[in-house]
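To: structure desk
From: M.T.
Subject: fold request, one chain
Message: Could you run this one when you get a chance? Sequence is below, nothing fancy, just the single chain.
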Amino acid sequence: SFKDLKENNTVAYSTAGSSSNIEGLAMLQQTGVKARMVATGGDTATMTQILSGQIDVGYNTDGGLGFGPARDQVRIIASGEELVAFRNLTIRSLVANSDDLAKRRDVYLRYLQAYQQTVDWMYQDATALQWYADAKHVSVEEAHRVRDLIYPKDALRLGPIAQPELSIAQAVEFKRIDAPVTLEQFAKFQDILFTTPK
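Reply: Done. Structure tokens follow.
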């Protein structure tokens, strides 16, 4: 398991500040493991480094669909859903230039509405799941498993940023910002144009 890793073990992440970086650091923190984090690039490059023995623990962003023929040589020892601190936490947001947003607010709103329609389509139309399966060269059942594991619909909700105080604390702890900002300062960077209907 992840808890069995030692200080001399290496744990992969894509690039500094990425989701795989922050989640890897959080997993080390949660488990009390002292392994060393190493930047390995994308999923394919990471898989190559795992199979060649350059890295002890890799990461994967598509629920194992990219393992291909190497599937039998790989064992999953942890998943992001195990991160207690990340439950109900916003880990991705859409960023816009404030001047452009002020000038073309209606365009941004239409984009978000279309984004929401796409998310709804992903979960309501069997054609979407078939398309995903075909694109990944897997069965519809496997595509369904991965979609619900990696992209649960509720996690794609549009709306206010959840638990910003935790994101700020992590940004300081993991050295992404030099000093914490207040929630009032943080709020100045938010402009909620559209919220997913419940």
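Reply (cont.): Residues 17 and 176 are 7 Å apart (CA to CA). Let me know if you need anything else for the meeting.
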